[in-house]
Amino acid sequence: MRRALPVSCVGGLFVLGCSTDSHLSEEPQASAAIVASPPAGASADESSLFDVATPIDGLTPEDVGFGAAVDRAAAAGPTVRAAAAQRVIALANERGSTAWRERARPLIEDANTRRGFLLAAADIDFQLRQYQLERMAPLFSAMRKIDTPSIRAWLYAEAAHAFEDVERRRVALALLHALGNAKEVASPEVTALDRALEQTRPNVVPDAAEVLQSMQRKLSRCGVDHAPGRAVRLDMAVLVDAAGHVKSARALNATTLTPLELCLVEALRWAQFAPTTAGERVTLVIPFAFQP
Predict the structure, then answer these.
(1) The whole model's pTM is what?
(2) What average pLDDT does the segment 41-46 reach?
(3) Which option is the CATH number for 14-24+203-290: 2.170.290, 3.30.2420, 3.10.50, 2.40.50?
(4) Cβ atoms 139, 91 nearer than 8 A
């Protein structure tokens, strides 16, 4: 019998944008007054670097070869790296904007309709923030590889603001910690950001692992019926409201709606979880690995 195997990060699931030992609410519990000044050593205006040719010129994260181009830029000299950093920052500013999110709204609404979900405006707004963070992930990865003072300064500003989206702020701050030197990480500004994000309320679906385990047979049947004889990996994003009801489900990074995804959507739509601990909606990202 083929089995759907949720790849365990914590108890069989992983919540998008969260660390492996905590789950975050949608909004901060309290806001802190933070002055957005860049970490020490950040570059001044580098707009002239757009005249410098880099391996990523003209590419977006969806283009074949973007990752390899980032690798070449990261291995280049300091001038090319600095110029590539500006290209990545420009892409992140565009992709992280309110305008980009609104352009994506029809795509999310259509995806919900095709999967049979009718969502309230607040739920769609939450989906859009999650989708935006998904689409920014390759740019965060590029920033990790290229790593310049201007990238660290951008990450600081993103962690300080980012539309008050706590998951996005936490991703930026975690990357800043990974890239920053000891002086930057210990600076009063970064410490203030850490403390502000520590005020976010834990938002856990307390019985998620148990519910998914109870659905194992039904989920596994999707692989038997729609992916026979094949090894398939698929990540499903499941939006759960404060009461534990499933509001939507979809495959991440899918370009077409496949019979396998539809089967998983239908199975997951009837799942009933316990209320979330902070009374906020949350997105569960559930990885599946179907084995022959």
Answers:
(1) 0.76
(2) 47
(3) 3.30.2420
(4) yes
